[in-house]
Amino acid sequence: MAEGSRNEPAMDARRFATLAEAYGGDLRRWPEAERMAGTVFAASEAGEAILKQAGTLDTLLDSYRVDDPGKALHDSILQVAGRHLVQRRRQRFWWLGLGLAGIGLAGAVAGLALVTVVTPEVQPDHTVLDANVTAFGDAGPDAENGEESL
What we know:
It contains four helices and two strands. It has helices spanning about 15-25, 30-40, 45-65, 70-120; strands at about 135, 135-140.
C-alpha cells in the first residue's frame, strides 16, 4: 500500500494514545507510516488532549538532569578496578600454571601408553616359575649340585 492512500484505516483514539505513549507528543518522533494519520487525528479535541498529556510527560523527562559524579566516587571506582585487575592477573597466572601441569601430565600418560603399546612382550627363555625356583636358581631335582662340581 502506498503511504497516505485512502485504503489505510483511519486512526482511532486508542491507537493514537498508544503511539503518543510510546513516541511522545512530538509527531516528528513517530514512525513515518503513522505520521500522516496522526497529524489528521491530532487536529481533533481528543488528539489535542492526548498530545498535551504526552507533551507534559516529555517536558518532565527532558528537564531531568543527573549530577556529575563526585571525586570520591571516581576514586573509589578506580581503586576497585585496580584491585580487580590485580586479581585477574593472579588468576590468569594460576590458570596458566595449572594448564602447563595438565599438559605435562597428558604428555606423561601419552608416553606411557606409547611405551606400553610399542614395546614387545619379552618371553623368558625357559624359566618357568614354580615352587622349586629360588632367588639363587632352580632348586629342583634336575639342578646340578654346586658343591659336587668343586
